[in-house]
Amino acid sequence: MPACSIPLQAAELLSTGILSNPLHDLPADIKEAASLVEYVGSNEPCMPINWRFAESIASIKGLEGAMLNVLLKRKYGIPYQKIVIDTDHTQLYFMSPLLYTYSLDGKDVPATLSLNSGLEKYFPNYDTHDVKNLYMKTMCTTMYKTKDSRFYHLHGSMNPRITLTALDIPKSHETEVSSLDRAGEIFAEKVAEYEAEAIETLMNVKYRQAGTVAYSKEEYLASEHGKAHAHIGLYELHHVPNTKQLPTWWSPVDGKTTPERPLFGLKIVDLTRIIAGAAISRDLAELGASVLRITCPGVSDMNVLNAEMGWGKWNAHLDLKKEEDRNQLRELILEADVVIEGYRPGVMAKWGFGKDDILKLFEGKEKGIIYAHENCYGWHGPWTPRSGWQQISDANTGVSYGFGRAMGVDEPVTPVWPNSDFCTGASGAIGIIQALIERAGKGGSYIVDVALNYYNQWLINSCGEYPKDVWDTVYAKAGRPVFHARDHMVQLMLPLLRILKEMNAPIFKDGYFERRENPGVVPMRTVKPVLTFPEGIVKPGFQVGSRPNGVDKPVWPADLTTPAIA
Protein backbone atom coordinates (compact mmCIF):
# COMPACT_ATOMS: atom_id res chain seq x y z
CA MET A 1 0.00 0.00 0.00
CA PRO A 2 1.41 3.46 -0.87
CA ALA A 3 2.45 5.73 1.99
CA CYS A 4 -0.18 8.20 0.83
CA SER A 5 -3.22 7.43 -1.28
CA ILE A 6 -5.77 10.16 -1.86
CA PRO A 7 -8.42 7.72 -3.20
CA LEU A 8 -8.05 5.41 -0.19
CA GLN A 9 -8.06 8.29 2.26
CA ALA A 10 -11.07 9.90 0.57
CA ALA A 11 -12.96 6.63 1.02
CA GLU A 12 -11.86 6.46 4.66
CA LEU A 13 -12.90 10.07 5.23
CA LEU A 14 -16.31 9.40 3.71
CA SER A 15 -16.73 6.43 6.03
CA THR A 16 -15.40 7.80 9.32
CA GLY A 17 -15.53 11.57 8.88
CA ILE A 18 -19.04 11.71 7.43
CA LEU A 19 -21.11 8.50 7.48
CA SER A 20 -20.08 7.43 11.00
CA ASN A 21 -19.71 10.96 12.33
CA PRO A 22 -22.26 11.45 15.16
CA LEU A 23 -22.69 15.06 14.06
CA HIS A 24 -24.47 13.85 10.90
CA ASP A 25 -28.05 12.57 11.11
CA LEU A 26 -28.27 10.67 7.82
CA PRO A 27 -30.78 8.19 6.35
CA ALA A 28 -30.52 4.68 7.81
CA ASP A 29 -29.60 3.18 4.43
CA ILE A 30 -26.88 5.71 3.55
CA LYS A 31 -23.94 3.39 4.33
CA GLU A 32 -25.28 0.67 2.05
CA ALA A 33 -25.87 3.28 -0.67
CA ALA A 34 -22.31 4.58 -0.20
CA SER A 35 -20.81 1.11 -0.66
CA LEU A 36 -21.27 1.61 -4.41
CA VAL A 37 -19.02 4.71 -4.43
CA GLU A 38 -15.54 3.96 -5.80
CA TYR A 39 -12.53 6.28 -5.77
CA VAL A 40 -9.73 6.35 -8.35
CA GLY A 41 -6.93 8.83 -9.05
CA SER A 42 -3.33 9.69 -8.24
CA ASN A 43 -2.02 8.55 -4.88
CA GLU A 44 0.07 11.59 -3.99
CA PRO A 45 -1.29 15.12 -3.59
CA CYS A 46 -0.09 17.72 -6.08
CA MET A 47 -1.59 20.82 -4.48
CA PRO A 48 0.94 22.64 -2.22
CA ILE A 49 -1.71 23.34 0.42
CA ASN A 50 -1.44 21.69 3.83
CA TRP A 51 -5.17 21.10 4.28
CA ARG A 52 -6.48 17.89 2.71
CA PHE A 53 -8.61 19.65 0.11
CA ALA A 54 -8.55 16.74 -2.35
CA GLU A 55 -9.84 14.22 0.18
CA SER A 56 -12.31 16.76 1.54
CA ILE A 57 -14.19 17.49 -1.69
CA ALA A 58 -13.94 13.86 -2.85
CA SER A 59 -15.57 12.60 0.35
CA ILE A 60 -18.31 15.23 0.19
CA LYS A 61 -19.03 14.34 -3.42
CA GLY A 62 -19.12 10.71 -2.29
CA LEU A 63 -21.83 11.65 0.19
CA GLU A 64 -23.70 13.42 -2.61
CA GLY A 65 -23.56 10.26 -4.71
CA ALA A 66 -24.67 8.09 -1.79
CA MET A 67 -27.58 10.41 -0.98
CA LEU A 68 -28.61 10.37 -4.63
CA ASN A 69 -28.49 6.56 -4.52
CA VAL A 70 -30.91 6.58 -1.59
CA LEU A 71 -33.26 8.81 -3.59
CA LEU A 72 -32.96 6.63 -6.71
CA LYS A 73 -33.94 3.52 -4.80
CA ARG A 74 -36.77 5.09 -2.80
CA LYS A 75 -38.30 7.17 -5.61
CA TYR A 76 -37.61 5.07 -8.70
CA GLY A 77 -37.22 1.62 -7.16
CA ILE A 78 -33.93 0.90 -8.92
CA PRO A 79 -30.82 -0.66 -7.34
CA TYR A 80 -28.05 1.53 -6.00
CA GLN A 81 -25.85 2.70 -8.86
CA LYS A 82 -22.09 2.33 -9.05
CA ILE A 83 -20.51 5.79 -8.84
CA VAL A 84 -16.87 6.45 -9.72
CA ILE A 85 -15.12 9.56 -8.41
CA ASP A 86 -11.71 10.49 -9.82
CA THR A 87 -9.95 12.47 -7.10
CA ASP A 88 -7.76 14.28 -9.66
CA HIS A 89 -10.83 15.45 -11.55
CA THR A 90 -12.65 16.34 -8.33
CA GLN A 91 -10.07 18.99 -7.37
CA LEU A 92 -11.08 20.99 -10.44
CA TYR A 93 -14.52 21.45 -8.88
CA PHE A 94 -13.27 24.20 -6.56
CA MET A 95 -10.94 25.67 -9.20
CA SER A 96 -13.50 25.91 -12.00
CA PRO A 97 -14.04 29.73 -12.04
CA LEU A 98 -10.43 30.08 -13.13
CA LEU A 99 -10.42 27.26 -15.69
CA TYR A 100 -13.24 27.83 -18.16
CA THR A 101 -12.75 29.33 -21.61
CA TYR A 102 -15.29 31.02 -23.85
CA SER A 103 -15.33 31.64 -27.60
CA LEU A 104 -14.63 35.15 -28.84
CA ASP A 105 -14.08 35.88 -32.53
CA GLY A 106 -13.32 32.23 -33.20
CA LYS A 107 -10.77 31.89 -30.40
CA ASP A 108 -10.98 30.32 -26.95
CA VAL A 109 -10.43 33.05 -24.36
CA PRO A 110 -9.37 31.92 -20.86
CA ALA A 111 -11.31 32.85 -17.75
CA THR A 112 -10.24 35.87 -15.77
CA LEU A 113 -11.37 37.13 -12.40
CA SER A 114 -10.89 40.71 -13.55
CA LEU A 115 -13.51 42.62 -15.51
CA ASN A 116 -13.07 41.70 -19.14
CA SER A 117 -14.68 43.53 -22.04
CA GLY A 118 -14.81 40.33 -24.06
CA LEU A 119 -16.80 38.49 -21.42
CA GLU A 120 -19.00 41.53 -20.85
CA LYS A 121 -20.28 41.06 -24.39
CA TYR A 122 -22.08 37.95 -23.13
CA PHE A 123 -22.30 38.50 -19.37
CA PRO A 124 -22.80 42.22 -18.69
CA ASN A 125 -21.07 43.74 -15.70
CA TYR A 126 -23.35 44.28 -12.69
CA ASP A 127 -20.84 46.10 -10.49
CA THR A 128 -23.11 49.00 -9.54
CA HIS A 129 -20.68 50.81 -7.22
CA ASP A 130 -18.23 53.56 -7.98
CA VAL A 131 -14.79 52.32 -6.90
CA LYS A 132 -13.15 52.06 -10.31
CA ASN A 133 -9.48 51.80 -9.30
CA LEU A 134 -8.73 48.08 -9.72
CA TYR A 135 -5.75 48.19 -7.34
CA MET A 136 -7.68 49.77 -4.47
CA LYS A 137 -10.66 47.51 -5.10
CA THR A 138 -8.44 44.42 -5.06
CA MET A 139 -6.36 45.22 -1.98
CA CYS A 140 -9.49 46.18 -0.06
CA THR A 141 -10.05 42.43 0.38
CA THR A 142 -7.13 40.87 2.22
CA MET A 143 -5.36 40.79 5.61
CA TYR A 144 -3.30 43.43 7.39
CA LYS A 145 -1.58 43.69 10.79
CA THR A 146 -3.34 45.68 13.50
CA LYS A 147 -1.87 47.99 16.14
CA ASP A 148 -1.82 45.13 18.66
CA SER A 149 -0.09 42.76 16.18
CA ARG A 150 -3.15 40.71 15.26
CA PHE A 151 -4.18 40.25 11.64
CA TYR A 152 -7.47 41.58 10.36
CA HIS A 153 -9.17 40.51 7.15
CA LEU A 154 -10.82 43.42 5.41
CA HIS A 155 -13.39 42.69 2.71
CA GLY A 156 -14.81 45.00 0.09
CA SER A 157 -17.89 42.79 -0.18
CA MET A 158 -20.02 43.98 -3.09
CA ASN A 159 -19.34 47.62 -2.24
CA PRO A 160 -15.73 48.48 -1.35
CA ARG A 161 -16.72 52.13 -0.93
CA ILE A 162 -18.00 51.23 2.56
CA THR A 163 -14.57 49.91 3.59
CA LEU A 164 -12.77 52.93 2.14
CA THR A 165 -15.13 55.28 3.96
CA ALA A 166 -14.79 53.39 7.26
CA LEU A 167 -11.00 53.67 7.08
CA ASP A 168 -11.15 57.34 6.01
CA ILE A 169 -9.22 56.70 2.80
CA PRO A 170 -9.56 59.76 0.53
CA LYS A 171 -11.05 59.41 -2.95
CA SER A 172 -7.92 61.02 -4.42
CA HIS A 173 -6.11 57.71 -3.99
CA GLU A 174 -8.41 56.20 -6.59
CA THR A 175 -6.81 58.31 -9.30
CA GLU A 176 -3.27 58.31 -7.92
CA VAL A 177 -2.65 54.65 -7.06
CA SER A 178 -1.20 52.62 -9.92
CA SER A 179 -0.03 49.35 -8.33
CA LEU A 180 -1.21 46.63 -5.97
CA ASP A 181 1.81 47.26 -3.75
CA ARG A 182 0.95 50.92 -3.25
CA ALA A 183 -2.71 50.11 -2.61
CA GLY A 184 -1.65 47.51 -0.05
CA GLU A 185 0.58 50.04 1.71
CA ILE A 186 -2.34 52.46 2.07
CA PHE A 187 -4.60 49.84 3.63
CA ALA A 188 -1.78 48.53 5.84
CA GLU A 189 -1.13 52.02 7.23
CA LYS A 190 -4.81 52.52 8.03
CA VAL A 191 -5.37 49.11 9.66
CA ALA A 192 -2.23 49.59 11.78
CA GLU A 193 -3.95 52.54 13.47
CA TYR A 194 -6.52 50.20 15.08
CA GLU A 195 -6.37 47.47 17.66
CA ALA A 196 -8.11 44.31 16.51
CA GLU A 197 -11.18 44.73 18.70
CA ALA A 198 -11.63 48.33 17.57
CA ILE A 199 -11.52 47.61 13.85
CA GLU A 200 -13.79 44.61 14.40
CA THR A 201 -16.37 46.93 15.95
CA LEU A 202 -15.83 49.57 13.27
CA MET A 203 -16.49 47.19 10.40
CA ASN A 204 -19.06 44.74 11.73
CA VAL A 205 -21.04 47.01 14.05
CA LYS A 206 -20.76 50.60 12.84
CA TYR A 207 -20.48 50.02 9.07
CA ARG A 208 -21.95 46.48 8.87
CA GLN A 209 -19.20 45.54 6.43
CA ALA A 210 -17.61 42.11 6.29
CA GLY A 211 -14.35 41.60 8.17
CA THR A 212 -12.82 39.42 10.86
CA VAL A 213 -9.87 39.00 13.15
CA ALA A 214 -7.79 36.08 11.89
CA TYR A 215 -7.94 33.42 14.59
CA SER A 216 -6.06 30.17 15.05
CA LYS A 217 -8.20 27.05 14.89
CA GLU A 218 -7.77 26.63 18.65
CA GLU A 219 -9.00 30.17 19.29
CA TYR A 220 -12.01 29.70 17.05
CA LEU A 221 -13.08 26.36 18.51
CA ALA A 222 -12.76 27.79 22.05
CA SER A 223 -14.74 30.94 21.23
CA GLU A 224 -18.38 31.45 22.19
CA HIS A 225 -19.29 31.31 18.52
CA GLY A 226 -17.27 28.19 17.83
CA LYS A 227 -18.80 26.39 20.80
CA ALA A 228 -22.30 27.33 19.60
CA HIS A 229 -21.68 25.25 16.46
CA ALA A 230 -19.87 22.30 18.00
CA HIS A 231 -22.94 20.08 17.53
CA ILE A 232 -23.13 20.59 13.75
CA GLY A 233 -21.48 18.69 10.90
CA LEU A 234 -21.59 19.78 7.26
CA TYR A 235 -25.18 20.99 7.47
CA GLU A 236 -28.18 20.96 9.77
CA LEU A 237 -31.62 19.68 8.72
CA HIS A 238 -34.79 20.74 10.55
CA HIS A 239 -38.21 19.14 10.08
CA VAL A 240 -41.19 21.50 10.41
CA PRO A 241 -44.17 19.16 10.97
CA ASN A 242 -47.56 20.13 9.53
CA THR A 243 -50.46 17.65 9.47
CA LYS A 244 -51.83 19.30 6.32
CA GLN A 245 -48.57 18.72 4.42
CA LEU A 246 -48.60 15.08 3.39
CA PRO A 247 -45.60 12.96 2.37
CA THR A 248 -44.80 13.73 -1.26
CA TRP A 249 -42.13 13.93 -3.93
CA TRP A 250 -42.24 16.75 -6.46
CA SER A 251 -44.62 16.73 -9.45
CA PRO A 252 -43.16 14.48 -12.16
CA VAL A 253 -43.02 15.30 -15.86
CA ASP A 254 -44.20 12.37 -17.99
CA GLY A 255 -41.33 10.63 -19.72
CA LYS A 256 -38.70 13.01 -18.35
CA THR A 257 -38.66 12.52 -14.55
CA THR A 258 -36.61 9.33 -14.73
CA PRO A 259 -33.39 7.96 -13.21
CA GLU A 260 -31.53 9.42 -16.20
CA ARG A 261 -32.33 12.93 -14.93
CA PRO A 262 -33.37 12.05 -11.37
CA LEU A 263 -34.34 15.57 -10.24
CA PHE A 264 -36.18 16.54 -13.43
CA GLY A 265 -39.35 18.47 -12.65
CA LEU A 266 -38.04 19.73 -9.31
CA LYS A 267 -38.53 23.50 -9.34
CA ILE A 268 -36.05 25.63 -7.41
CA VAL A 269 -36.19 29.38 -6.83
CA ASP A 270 -32.60 30.57 -6.51
CA LEU A 271 -32.00 33.75 -4.48
CA THR A 272 -28.20 33.62 -4.44
CA ARG A 273 -25.10 35.22 -5.92
CA ILE A 274 -21.31 34.69 -6.06
CA ILE A 275 -20.23 31.06 -5.29
CA ALA A 276 -21.41 29.09 -2.24
CA GLY A 277 -25.17 29.54 -2.63
CA ALA A 278 -24.87 29.42 -6.41
CA ALA A 279 -23.02 26.09 -6.19
CA ILE A 280 -25.95 24.55 -4.30
CA SER A 281 -28.40 25.18 -7.12
CA ARG A 282 -25.86 24.39 -9.85
CA ASP A 283 -25.19 20.95 -8.35
CA LEU A 284 -28.93 20.21 -8.27
CA ALA A 285 -29.41 21.49 -11.83
CA GLU A 286 -26.68 19.05 -12.89
CA LEU A 287 -28.99 16.24 -11.73
CA GLY A 288 -31.97 17.58 -13.67
CA ALA A 289 -33.58 20.18 -11.39
CA SER A 290 -35.15 23.28 -12.97
CA VAL A 291 -33.64 26.41 -11.43
CA LEU A 292 -35.01 29.92 -11.84
CA ARG A 293 -32.56 32.46 -10.45
CA ILE A 294 -33.99 35.82 -9.43
CA THR A 295 -31.85 38.94 -9.14
CA CYS A 296 -32.59 42.64 -8.91
CA PRO A 297 -31.28 44.94 -11.65
CA GLY A 298 -29.97 47.42 -9.08
CA VAL A 299 -28.08 44.91 -6.91
CA SER A 300 -24.37 44.29 -7.54
CA ASP A 301 -23.24 40.95 -8.92
CA MET A 302 -20.08 39.47 -10.46
CA ASN A 303 -20.37 38.57 -14.13
CA VAL A 304 -16.98 36.84 -14.12
CA LEU A 305 -18.36 34.27 -11.67
CA ASN A 306 -21.85 34.01 -13.16
CA ALA A 307 -20.43 32.58 -16.37
CA GLU A 308 -19.26 29.46 -14.51
CA MET A 309 -21.79 29.35 -11.66
CA GLY A 310 -24.84 29.90 -13.88
CA TRP A 311 -25.07 26.49 -15.57
CA GLY A 312 -28.56 25.01 -15.57
CA LYS A 313 -30.33 28.22 -14.52
CA TRP A 314 -32.75 30.61 -16.11
CA ASN A 315 -32.09 34.17 -14.94
CA ALA A 316 -34.84 36.72 -14.37
CA HIS A 317 -35.08 40.13 -12.76
CA LEU A 318 -37.56 41.20 -10.09
CA ASP A 319 -37.34 44.43 -8.12
CA LEU A 320 -38.41 43.61 -4.56
CA LYS A 321 -39.00 47.29 -3.84
CA LYS A 322 -42.10 46.95 -6.03
CA GLU A 323 -45.18 45.25 -4.59
CA GLU A 324 -46.11 43.67 -7.92
CA ASP A 325 -42.65 42.09 -8.19
CA ARG A 326 -42.84 40.77 -4.63
CA ASN A 327 -46.20 39.22 -5.47
CA GLN A 328 -44.68 37.68 -8.60
CA LEU A 329 -41.89 36.13 -6.53
CA ARG A 330 -44.43 34.67 -4.11
CA GLU A 331 -46.25 33.05 -7.04
CA LEU A 332 -42.99 31.54 -8.30
CA ILE A 333 -42.19 30.18 -4.84
CA LEU A 334 -45.69 28.71 -4.39
CA GLU A 335 -45.15 26.64 -7.53
CA ALA A 336 -41.69 25.50 -6.39
CA ASP A 337 -40.47 22.72 -4.09
CA VAL A 338 -37.23 24.39 -3.01
CA VAL A 339 -36.06 27.92 -2.21
CA ILE A 340 -32.32 28.60 -1.86
CA GLU A 341 -31.29 31.89 -0.26
CA GLY A 342 -27.75 33.17 0.16
CA TYR A 343 -27.88 36.83 1.10
CA ARG A 344 -26.76 38.34 4.38
CA PRO A 345 -28.99 37.13 7.25
CA GLY A 346 -32.05 39.36 7.50
CA VAL A 347 -31.88 40.89 4.02
CA MET A 348 -34.57 38.74 2.39
CA ALA A 349 -36.74 38.89 5.53
CA LYS A 350 -36.85 42.66 5.07
CA TRP A 351 -38.74 42.06 1.83
CA GLY A 352 -40.95 39.29 3.17
CA PHE A 353 -38.92 36.30 1.97
CA GLY A 354 -37.09 35.11 5.07
CA LYS A 355 -37.38 31.62 6.50
CA ASP A 356 -40.48 32.34 8.59
CA ASP A 357 -42.16 34.16 5.70
CA ILE A 358 -41.67 31.21 3.35
CA LEU A 359 -42.91 28.70 5.93
CA LYS A 360 -46.01 30.82 6.54
CA LEU A 361 -46.67 31.00 2.80
CA PHE A 362 -47.00 27.20 2.75
CA GLU A 363 -48.70 26.81 6.12
CA GLY A 364 -52.09 25.86 4.66
CA LYS A 365 -50.79 24.01 1.59
CA GLU A 366 -50.88 20.25 1.06
CA LYS A 367 -47.24 20.23 -0.01
CA GLY A 368 -44.44 21.46 2.22
CA ILE A 369 -41.51 23.61 1.12
CA ILE A 370 -37.77 23.02 1.46
CA TYR A 371 -35.99 26.23 2.41
CA ALA A 372 -32.18 26.20 2.31
CA HIS A 373 -30.22 29.22 3.48
CA GLU A 374 -26.48 29.70 3.36
CA ASN A 375 -24.35 32.22 5.22
CA CYS A 376 -20.77 32.67 6.40
CA TYR A 377 -20.79 32.30 10.19
CA GLY A 378 -23.57 29.77 10.76
CA TRP A 379 -27.02 29.99 12.30
CA HIS A 380 -26.16 29.94 16.03
CA GLY A 381 -23.93 32.16 18.13
CA PRO A 382 -23.17 35.89 18.36
CA TRP A 383 -21.66 36.36 14.89
CA THR A 384 -24.63 34.93 12.97
CA PRO A 385 -25.95 38.30 11.68
CA ARG A 386 -22.62 39.35 10.21
CA SER A 387 -21.86 39.59 6.52
CA GLY A 388 -19.14 37.23 5.37
CA TRP A 389 -17.48 35.48 2.47
CA GLN A 390 -15.14 32.57 1.82
CA GLN A 391 -11.95 34.43 2.78
CA ILE A 392 -13.65 35.72 5.93
CA SER A 393 -14.63 32.21 7.03
CA ASP A 394 -11.16 30.85 6.28
CA ALA A 395 -9.60 33.57 8.45
CA ASN A 396 -12.26 33.36 11.16
CA THR A 397 -11.99 29.60 11.73
CA GLY A 398 -8.19 29.24 11.66
CA VAL A 399 -7.86 27.67 8.23
CA SER A 400 -5.82 30.63 6.97
CA TYR A 401 -3.47 30.57 9.95
CA GLY A 402 -2.96 26.85 9.40
CA PHE A 403 -1.85 27.44 5.80
CA GLY A 404 0.51 30.28 6.69
CA ARG A 405 2.22 28.34 9.45
CA ALA A 406 2.60 25.28 7.23
CA MET A 407 4.65 27.48 4.87
CA GLY A 408 6.79 28.63 7.80
CA VAL A 409 5.35 32.12 8.17
CA ASP A 410 3.62 33.06 11.42
CA GLU A 411 0.78 34.86 9.71
CA PRO A 412 -2.56 33.84 8.21
CA VAL A 413 -2.70 33.28 4.45
CA THR A 414 -5.88 32.56 2.50
CA PRO A 415 -5.45 28.97 1.23
CA VAL A 416 -5.61 30.04 -2.41
CA TRP A 417 -8.80 28.51 -3.84
CA PRO A 418 -12.48 29.16 -3.01
CA ASN A 419 -12.53 25.66 -1.54
CA SER A 420 -14.81 26.43 1.39
CA ASP A 421 -17.27 28.11 -0.99
CA PHE A 422 -17.60 25.06 -3.21
CA CYS A 423 -17.58 22.49 -0.41
CA THR A 424 -20.29 24.47 1.36
CA GLY A 425 -22.29 24.52 -1.86
CA ALA A 426 -21.97 20.77 -2.34
CA SER A 427 -22.99 20.24 1.30
CA GLY A 428 -26.08 22.37 0.78
CA ALA A 429 -27.08 20.37 -2.28
CA ILE A 430 -26.75 17.15 -0.27
CA GLY A 431 -28.88 18.62 2.50
CA ILE A 432 -31.62 19.44 0.00
CA ILE A 433 -31.55 15.92 -1.49
CA GLN A 434 -31.88 14.52 2.02
CA ALA A 435 -34.77 16.93 2.71
CA LEU A 436 -36.53 15.67 -0.44
CA ILE A 437 -36.12 12.10 0.80
CA GLU A 438 -37.37 12.97 4.29
CA ARG A 439 -40.33 14.97 2.98
CA ALA A 440 -41.39 11.99 0.85
CA GLY A 441 -41.48 9.87 4.00
CA LYS A 442 -42.76 12.25 6.68
CA GLY A 443 -44.39 15.20 4.95
CA GLY A 444 -44.13 18.68 6.39
CA SER A 445 -41.54 21.29 5.43
CA TYR A 446 -37.77 21.32 5.90
CA ILE A 447 -35.11 23.89 6.68
CA VAL A 448 -31.54 23.25 5.52
CA ASP A 449 -28.94 25.32 7.41
CA VAL A 450 -25.60 25.53 5.66
CA ALA A 451 -22.63 27.82 6.31
CA LEU A 452 -19.02 28.34 5.32
CA ASN A 453 -17.98 27.97 8.96
CA TYR A 454 -19.80 24.62 9.19
CA TYR A 455 -17.65 23.24 6.42
CA ASN A 456 -14.44 24.79 7.75
CA GLN A 457 -14.90 23.43 11.28
CA TRP A 458 -15.54 19.99 9.74
CA LEU A 459 -12.36 20.42 7.67
CA ILE A 460 -10.42 21.22 10.85
CA ASN A 461 -11.93 18.55 13.10
CA SER A 462 -12.65 15.63 10.77
CA CYS A 463 -10.46 16.07 7.71
CA GLY A 464 -7.36 17.90 8.89
CA GLU A 465 -3.94 18.54 7.39
CA TYR A 466 -1.47 16.26 5.63
CA PRO A 467 1.07 14.49 7.86
CA LYS A 468 4.38 16.36 8.01
CA ASP A 469 6.26 13.96 5.73
CA VAL A 470 3.56 14.10 3.06
CA TRP A 471 3.34 17.89 3.28
CA ASP A 472 7.12 18.31 3.10
CA THR A 473 7.23 16.19 -0.06
CA VAL A 474 4.45 17.95 -1.96
CA TYR A 475 5.64 21.38 -0.82
CA ALA A 476 9.19 20.65 -1.99
CA LYS A 477 7.96 19.40 -5.39
CA ALA A 478 6.14 22.70 -5.85
CA GLY A 479 9.32 24.67 -5.14
CA ARG A 480 8.30 25.75 -1.62
CA PRO A 481 6.34 28.87 -2.61
CA VAL A 482 5.77 31.34 0.21
CA PHE A 483 2.74 33.60 0.35
CA HIS A 484 1.80 36.22 2.91
CA ALA A 485 -1.21 37.63 4.72
CA ARG A 486 -1.39 40.66 2.46
CA ASP A 487 -1.55 38.60 -0.75
CA HIS A 488 -4.95 38.86 -2.40
CA MET A 489 -6.55 35.67 -3.77
CA VAL A 490 -5.73 36.68 -7.35
CA GLN A 491 -2.07 37.05 -6.27
CA LEU A 492 -2.30 33.51 -4.90
CA MET A 493 -4.32 31.66 -7.53
CA LEU A 494 -2.46 32.70 -10.66
CA PRO A 495 1.05 31.78 -9.38
CA LEU A 496 -0.20 28.48 -7.96
CA LEU A 497 -1.99 27.66 -11.21
CA ARG A 498 1.27 28.30 -13.06
CA ILE A 499 3.20 26.10 -10.59
CA LEU A 500 0.73 23.23 -11.01
CA LYS A 501 0.98 23.40 -14.80
CA GLU A 502 4.79 23.52 -14.66
CA MET A 503 4.67 20.41 -12.44
CA ASN A 504 2.48 18.64 -15.03
CA ALA A 505 -0.04 18.05 -12.27
CA PRO A 506 -2.39 15.20 -13.20
CA ILE A 507 -5.49 17.31 -12.60
CA PHE A 508 -5.51 19.03 -16.00
CA LYS A 509 -6.26 16.08 -18.29
CA ASP A 510 -8.38 16.94 -21.34
CA GLY A 511 -10.84 14.23 -20.35
CA TYR A 512 -11.84 16.24 -17.27
CA PHE A 513 -13.21 19.04 -19.45
CA GLU A 514 -16.04 19.33 -21.95
CA ARG A 515 -17.28 21.85 -24.48
CA ARG A 516 -20.83 23.15 -24.05
CA GLU A 517 -22.51 24.96 -26.92
CA ASN A 518 -24.60 27.17 -24.62
CA PRO A 519 -27.11 28.31 -27.30
CA GLY A 520 -28.10 31.95 -27.31
CA VAL A 521 -25.08 33.02 -25.26
CA VAL A 522 -21.56 31.76 -26.05
CA PRO A 523 -19.87 28.33 -26.38
CA MET A 524 -17.67 27.47 -23.41
CA ARG A 525 -15.21 24.77 -22.36
CA THR A 526 -15.37 23.93 -18.67
CA VAL A 527 -15.00 21.19 -16.06
CA LYS A 528 -17.16 18.08 -16.47
CA PRO A 529 -19.50 16.91 -13.69
CA VAL A 530 -17.56 15.06 -10.99
CA LEU A 531 -19.92 12.13 -10.36
CA THR A 532 -19.70 9.47 -13.07
CA PHE A 533 -22.10 6.56 -13.49
CA PRO A 534 -20.37 3.80 -15.52
CA GLU A 535 -23.62 1.87 -16.06
CA GLY A 536 -25.01 4.92 -17.87
CA ILE A 537 -28.40 5.00 -16.18
CA VAL A 538 -27.86 8.41 -14.54
CA LYS A 539 -26.60 11.16 -16.85
CA PRO A 540 -25.43 14.34 -15.10
CA GLY A 541 -25.45 17.51 -17.18
CA PHE A 542 -27.49 20.62 -17.86
CA GLN A 543 -30.63 21.15 -19.91
CA VAL A 544 -30.22 24.95 -19.63
CA GLY A 545 -26.98 26.77 -20.40
CA SER A 546 -25.21 29.54 -18.49
CA ARG A 547 -27.15 32.76 -18.92
CA PRO A 548 -26.61 36.41 -17.95
CA ASN A 549 -28.76 38.15 -15.36
CA GLY A 550 -32.28 39.24 -16.21
CA VAL A 551 -32.61 37.75 -19.71
CA ASP A 552 -35.55 35.45 -18.91
CA LYS A 553 -39.12 36.17 -17.91
CA PRO A 554 -39.91 35.57 -14.21
CA VAL A 555 -42.36 32.73 -14.89
CA TRP A 556 -42.16 28.95 -14.82
CA PRO A 557 -42.17 27.69 -18.42
CA ALA A 558 -44.57 24.97 -19.53
CA ASP A 559 -41.62 23.11 -21.07
CA LEU A 560 -38.84 22.65 -18.50
CA THR A 561 -36.35 21.76 -21.23
CA THR A 562 -36.59 25.17 -22.87
CA PRO A 563 -33.19 26.93 -22.99
CA ALA A 564 -34.78 30.37 -22.48
CA ILE A 565 -38.00 31.78 -21.02
CA ALA A 566 -39.24 34.30 -23.57
From TrEMBL:
Regions that span the bilayer: none
Gene3D superfamilies xrefs: Crotonobetainyl-coa:carnitine coa-transferase, domain 1
Signal peptide: none
UniProt name for this protein: CoA-transferase family III domain-containing protein
InterPro entries: CoA-trans_III_biosynth/detox (IPR052985), CoA-Trfase_fam_III (IPR003673), CoA-Trfase_III_dom_1_sf (IPR023606)
UniProt-recorded Gene Ontology molecular function terms: catalytic activity
Organism: Armillaria borealis
Family: Belongs to the CoA-transferase III family.
Alphabetized Pfam families for the sequence: CoA_transf_3
